[in-house]
Amino acid sequence: MTTYKFIRTALLVVCAMMLTACNNIVDLDGWTSPHDIPNTGAPVIKAVYAVADVNMQTPLTAAEMGQSLAIVGENLNRLQSLKFNTVETDLNQTYTQSTKAVVTVPDTYSKNHENVIEYTTDMGSVKYSFYIALPAAEVGGLLNEFAEPGTNVAVNGENLEYYDFTLTLDDKELPLSVEGNTLSFNIPQGTPDNSVFVISWIDAYGEQQTVNMPFRPTSDMLFDDISKAEQEMTDRNVSIETGDLGTSCLHFSGTISEYAWVELSFEQPLAETYEAENVNLYNFVFEVKTAEGHPLLDTGYEFALNWDWDNSYRWNPETLDTEGGWQTVRCSLEQIAPNGLSAVDGKMTLNVGFQPYQDYDADFYLANFRIVKK
């Protein structure tokens, strides 16, 4: 009996020691459930990774809306608020540990572009530099560079809803409206030819971006008066007229039979040569107008320089209908002169061709051919 009591007493002592040891282990940081470890100070963010980067090899400096991220640092538990670029994150979509938080970037955005993560817990806040990679704004030129002063003009673009835009003329700010992907404004009365409107905005990375938009540019015209240039043209369905822009324009009119080829060429001295390495810095630009009820065919238009039809620009305007107004068309000069543009005997020839794929009742105008720095 004495032996049994001794053994029982020894077992109780061992169990007590084991329980004491187990209690000591539970109290150690690292054995407590990671999301229950209390913060000992303000949060610290050391790095941000994509959730898929499980080995945390590539730290991020930017993320897209809706992207899942792992924030690594210290004192990240008891999250009270999380903001990306001033936008609150849904805390129901977060999971925190003392040294790691799995979060989702909000699907909404802010135009403030503060570009920080603001992480707030029961022990304080921290800000960490981080960009939200919004789609870049693309701003085109005036829809009609030869609009009249006093009229409203539009500028088309892409991803405009993410940014705030400012319009200036001669450093004076003007009213500007934004609707969807279209900017619009009124051209002040008395605005002279060759003026330049400037649209500016702050991009997602805090950098200022600007686009210069020439208004009624006359200095870059290939022809001072196309009617006075040396010319060759077919004798059907095309004429040179003085249009409502006040300059000479090409007028295509009447029924043009399926696959009939209408060709024009105009020659005059070339003021500047554009070598192959810099043609990408320029645009080939002109205006087009369709009579009401006579939309353009979606293909069949061709432009070449110096008879180089092998490298011609084939314009495919889809179904364009300007409804009696003028519209500006732009393409990169490299699309029409990929090998550069040089004078031939000191002269340059513009070739214009049109070949409809069906019988076509034409009534459209082309004007103001020019080469313009982008």
* Major β-sheet profile: 5 strands, antiparallel
Strand numbers in spatial order across the main sheet: 19-22-27-24-25
Mean model confidence by pLDDT? 88
User: What general form does the structure show?
Assistant: elongated
Helical proportion?
under 10%
Strand content: 35-45%
Oligomer: single chain
Instruction: Quote the distance from N terminus to C terminus.
Output: 104 Å
What does this structure look like?
With 374 residues, the protein is mainly beta. The chain is 7% helix and 43% strand. The protein has one helix and 28 strands. The protein has one helix at residues 2-27; strands at 44-50, 62-63, 68-74, 79-84, 87-88, 95-96, 100-104, 116-121, 124-129, 131-132, 138-142, 152-158, 165-169, 172-174, 177-179, 182-186, 195-202, 208-215, 230-233, 238-242, 248-256, 262-269, 282-290, 301-305, 313-315, 326-332, 347-354, 360-373. The strands form seven sheets. Strands 19-22-27-24-25 form a five-stranded antiparallel beta sheet, with no helix packed on it. Strands 20-21-28-23-26 form a five-stranded antiparallel beta sheet, with no helix packed on it. It has a four-stranded antiparallel beta sheet with strand order 1-3-7-6, with no helix packed on it. It is elongated and about 90 Å long. Mean pLDDT is 88; it is low at 1-30.
